[in-house]
UniProtKB/TrEMBL annotation:
Coiled coil: none
Pfam families with a match to the protein in the record: RACo_C_ter, RACo_linker, Raco_middle
Protein name: ASKHA domain-containing protein
SUPFAM superfamilies in alphabetical order: 2Fe-2S ferredoxin-like (SSF54292), Actin-like ATPase domain (SSF53067)
Highest taxon listed in the record's lineage: Bacteria
Taxonomic placement: Bacteria, Pseudomonadati, Pseudomonadota, Alphaproteobacteria, Rhodobacterales
Species whose genome carries this gene: Paralimibaculum aggregatum
Alphabetized InterPro entries for the sequence: 2Fe-2S_ferredoxin-like_sf (IPR036010), 2Fe-2S_ferredoxin-type (IPR001041), ATPase_NBD (IPR043129), Beta-grasp_dom_sf (IPR012675), Corrinoid_activation_enz (IPR052911), Raco-like_middle (IPR041414), Raco-like_middle_sf (IPR042259), RACo_C (IPR027980)
Residue intervals of the 2Fe-2S ferredoxin-type domain: 4-108
Length: 646
């Protein structure tokens, strides 16, 4: 028989196939990723392709108008009922009759790349643990004794090369009725388990539904969750809420003490977080317009204390050296065991912890930012109440966590507040007059521009957020309002931009009506403690690696996303580094959780990566204290900042 040249784009894969070969089959032969849920029956439309016509000098072919067979009955019926976009063909129906160039659009690829936002470092390739397939099962026969499930398993092996299939009782109980209702055609949801595949849901005939998954970052203050469509990677809904454990203690250590001091205290906190998560799942499902039962998988990350409490493990051992984790390995348990109402067979995967202070949230940051794949020596800092810090490159990666406290989130700062409309986020101080102008979240104007008050609105300027306070302090240092020790100058030197409060001076940042937003001496102290802890953690890793500078800095976390690299460096939060090499990664922990949800091999790989990360324990390292004391200066007692001088 005749053969024809077929070239697939964008992969560029090419080869010769026999005349009359359907495009889907040609794709399979040449190893081209072309989706199909119905197995070529013209039902699912996942196999859509865009054939080219005319000359393709780049590929050295000219494609005739009749290079593909005309619409057959199945394709015509599909087009009539559901409509095919112009130029699109069903790959399972169109047959190759001449040399042809065929484009596989992104939505027709199984392992398509999920489009990521600008700040994200790596692409996500879809390969989730749960998938849906349409299958035709042989009817029973008096002469063959196998059961309906065995015939379903055989059909999955023959039509989809899926081996080692198991089934649980709930699906088994409905299997016979469903097979007959679907006239021996069914759609199944299959979930990859360590020992093969499990049929977790079954529907009669060809069934279209969203199969969803959750990516959740359980922070000590807030819980943030995304609901994703597992077959497209699309985020269907995102929501956050306060972690209700706050009523047992603001920070991690106070929650650990609550567990130590109160019998049943750990259980109360476990209950609180699970209950909040279950509510959040309901809210996400509602926002996305899906049922809880459509959610088949969840990936959860959190620091070690959150990790333990979520799993129902008492975190007392994390309260003292040597900070032993109950387990550092990845976990995958039935979601129902965690009190989460999703699909009855849904699984909850919890990423591995790195060390007693470096949790699954840090593992998620590593998954998103891939320190182990960097050429340049990269410092990654996820700023929160604890800062998780990585330093490394291809050769080696070190990690630690540093107790920065909640000052960067606006707590312990007199006018501090969370990043929300009305909060000061940008500050500039005139070095001559030493007066400040500010910009607030939700408003484009500076405070000295006409129309500022109207633009800010009735709420007015309400306080200062974490990134705002960093800028304020750095600008105060640059304008000489505050000295190297962080002491705010007196009115004799500075005039009326400062006012006395007890025995110290406060700097007036913004006045609106009655409200004065100022930086007090105590505010400066709190921020210096936090920044010194951050710097000392980074420095400790540098010592351990035997380096005196880093080539790149990545700031992760909501706070890191808004911080100005220049001001962070003026303040000495981060070690010296060329300014253009300081970037922000946004919510890297959330991104990492999403990668783990959408790609099972990535989830498995990160367990390997974190095993190889070298952990450094800041709490027991005397040099941490030394670095901390030196870093209480602005920018630092003795560390050089050549990039600032330039
Ligand atoms: Fe389902 Fe072509 S593979 S329509």
């Amino acid at each position: 028989t005749d053969t024809h040249l077929v070239i697939f784009t964008p992969s560029g894969k090419r080869g010769r196939v026999a005349s009359g070969t359907p495009v889907l089959q040609a794709a399979r032969q040449l190893g081209v990723d072309l989706d199909s849920v119905c197995g070529g029956r013209g039902i699912c439309s996942k196999c859509q392709v865009s054939p080219g016509v005319g000359s393709f000098p780049k590929h050295g072919v000219t494609v005739a108008a009749d290079a593909l067979s005309p619409f057959n009955k199945v394709e015509a019926r599909y087009d009539e009922k559901r409509g095919l976009a112009p130029g699109r063909r069903l790959g399972c129906q169109a047959q190759i009759q001449g040399d042809v160039v065929i484009d596989v659009p992104p939505e027709s690829q199984v392992h398509r790349q999920v489009v990521r936002k600008r700040a994200e470092a790596r692409d996500i390739v879809l390969d989730p643990a749960t998938r849906m397939l349409f299958v035709e099962v042989a009817e029973p026969d008096m002469h063959r004794p196998e059961g309906d499930f065995e015939r379903l398993a055989a059909a999955l092996a023959a039509q989809w090369q899926i081996e080692q299939v198991s089934v649980g009782l709930p699906v088994l109980a409905r299997l016979q009725a469903t097979l007959r209702a679907g006239k021996w055609q069914v759609t199944v949801a299959l979930q990859r388990r360590t020992d093969g595949w499990k049929v977790v849901e079954i529907w009669p005939g060809y069934h279209e539904t969203r199969i969803c998954g959750l990516a959740v970052d359980i922070g000590s203050t807030t819980i943030a969750a995304h609901l994703c469509d597992l077959s497209t990677g699309e985020v269907l809904a995102s929501q956050g809420l306060m972690n209700p454990q706050i009523r047992f203690g603001e920070d991690l250590m106070s929650r650990v003490s609550y567990a130590q001091l109160n019998p049943g205290g750990a259980g109360e906190m476990t209950h609180a977080v699970r209950e909040a998560l279950d509510k959040l799942i309901g809210a996400l499902a509602e926002e996305a317009g899906v049922a809880r039962e459509d959610i088949f998988e969840g990936v959860f990350v959190g620091n070690p204390v959150m990790h333990h409490l979520f799993l129902g493990i008492d975190p007392v051992e994390l309260g003292w050296a040597p900070f032993a984790l109950a387990t550092s390995g990845p976990q995958r348990v039935p979601a129902s065991e965690l009190g989460l109402h999703m699909h009855p067979e849904a699984r909850a995967a919890i990423l591995p912890c790195i060390a007693g202070h470096v949790g699954a949230d840090a593992a998620a940051v590593a998954l998103s930012e891939a320190p182990e794949a960097q050429e340049e020596l990269t410092l990654i800092i996820d700023v929160g109440t604890n800062a998780e810090i990585f330093l490394g490159n291809r050769d080696k990666v070190l990690a630690c966590s540093s107790p920065t406290g909640p000052a960067f989130e606006g707590a312990q700062v007199s006018s501090g507040q969370r990043a929300a409309p009305g909060a000061i986020e940008r500050v500039r101080i005139d070095p001559e007059t030493r007066r400040a102008k500010v910009r607030v979240i939700g408003c484009e104007l500076w405070s000295d521009e006409p129309g500022f008050a109207e633009a800010v609105g009735a709420g007015g300027v309400t306080g200062i957020c974490g990134s705002g306070i960093i800028e304020a302090l750095a600008e105060m240092r640059l304008a000489g309002v505050m000295d190297k020790r962080g002491i705010i100058g007196s009115a004799e030197v500075l005039g009326d931009v400062v006012f006395a409060e007890g025995r110290t001076w406060s700097y007036r940042l913004h006045v609106s009506g009655e409200r004065v937003i100022a930086v007090t001496q105590n505010d400066v102290q709190q921020i210096l403690f936090a920044k010194a802890a951050l710097y000392a953690g980074a420095r400790l890793l540098m010592d351990q690696l035997g380096v005196d500078h880093v080539e790149r800095v990545v700031l992760a976390g909501a706070f890191g996303a808004h911080i100005s690299p220049l001001h962070a460096m003026v303040l000495g939060m981060i070690p010296d580094c060329p300014l253009e090499k300081v970037s922000s990664a946004g919510n890297a922990a959330g991104t990492g959780a999403r990668i783990a949800l959408l790609n099972l091999s990535e989830r498995r790989r990160i367990a390997e990566v974190v095993r190889k990360v070298e952990k450094v324990e800041t709490a027991v390292e005397p040099r941490f204290q030394e670095h901390f004391v030196d870093a209480m200066r602005v920018p630092h007692e003795n560390a050089p900042y050549p990039n600032l001088a330039a």
